[in-house]
Design goal:
The protein contains 7 helices and 12 strands. It has helices spanning about 5-10, 30-40, 65-75, 155-160, 175-180, 230-245, 260-295; strands at about 15-20, 45, 50-55, 90, 115-125, 130-135, 135, 165, 190-195, 200-205, 220, 250-255. About 40% of the residues are buried.
């Protein structure tokens, strides 16, 4: 095997995952999403998984304009190789400097993503369960953010990018969910969600077919809430879409409960690692199937 082949094999055995959480929100001076993100290990692996390296971003402000400005430069950073950024990504290190969050950033600035996978984590305070969000929405952001601003009448994505009302990640979401819940989910009722795919509608039945296990309640969801979590998710997905509509983003959004006790954060840590592993494992399976298909 030549050195080039060795480099390719080595690259296949390593993946980089960006993980983000949010800053303070409402009466929550500490956001559990960032606490969970900050407790994740620098790297981990598992059965049939490569070495997974985690890069943890600084907490994202709970503000629409800040999200629209910061998230694109997190997904497609120009200076990731700088010293000290191998395991963390401070927002103030991103270039260009923060603007008003509405300026069009040309895709030619940076067309290659900085990471193989992205996991955004946000808080859904009333919930006692964890959800994997399967889509994000362009419009309908009526609620005011931490800066007191509503984006109810914002048409930036619609007018500038001509992007669709709903975007979805580039995963087999049913496969990701089954992998994720296999070791975490408490046996519960069957859940069904409808994924609208343009001219056709596909109903996925997420049934718990495995024996009951003591674990964590995790569920799929097609409603990320029309607030900063949904907005952040769409911001990430649309950055991939606008560069190439045929390439869907390797990004996912995880909603966690609002509790911040040590046990809650530890549970959230296990849930997040489980979802990352499910994302990577599912994507690897899809790649292998496509490679086999090319050989037939």
């Amino acid at each position: 095997m030549g050195s080039r082949d060795a480099e390719i094999d080595d690259a296949k055995d390593k993946v980089k995952v960006l993980v983000t959480g949010f800053g303070p929100f409402g009466n929550n001076s500490v956001n559990p999403s960032h606490l969970i993100a900050s407790t994740l290990p620098i790297s981990f692996t598992g059965e049939n998984l490569p070495n997974i390296k985690i890069i943890n971003a600084s907490p994202i402000p709970v503000q629409y304009r800040a999200v629209r400005d910061v998230v694109p430069r997190l997904d497609f950073p120009r200076n990731l190789a700088k010293e000290g950024m191998e395991t963390s990504l401070p927002l103030d290190s991103l270039t260009p400097p923060l603007n008003d969050g509405l300026a069009l950033a040309s895709p030619s600035v940076e067309t290659r993503p900085g990471f193989d996978f992205i996991l955004h984590i946000g808080m859904a305070a009333p919930r006692k369960f964890y959800t994997m969000e399967t889509c994000a929405h362009r419009d309908g952001y009526v609620s005011r953010d931490e800066a007191g601003e509503s984006f109810e009448h914002d048409t930036y994505w619609r007018d500038t990018y001509k992007s669709p009302e709903v975007l979805r990640p580039g995963f087999d979401v049913e496969d990701v969910w089954r992998r994720w819940k296999s070791d975490l989910m408490v046996r519960g009722p069957q859940t069904s969600i409808v994924l609208d795919a343009g001219w056709r509608r596909k109903v996925f039945i997420f049934a718990d077919s495995l024996p009951a296990k003591k674990g964590v309640d995790v569920r799929p969801s097609n409603d990320a809430g029309r607030y900063l979590c949904d907005f952040t998710y769409y911001t990430s997905l649309v950055e991939y879409w606008r560069r190439d509509p045929d390439v869907k983003a390797p990004a996912m959004f995880l909603h966690v409960p609002g509790r911040i006790e040590d046990m809650d954060i530890e549970t959230g840590r296990k849930v997040a690692l489980g979802l990352i592993g499910a994302m990577v494992g599912s994507a690897r399976r899809k790649e292998e199937e496509e490679e086999v298909g090319d050989l037939i």
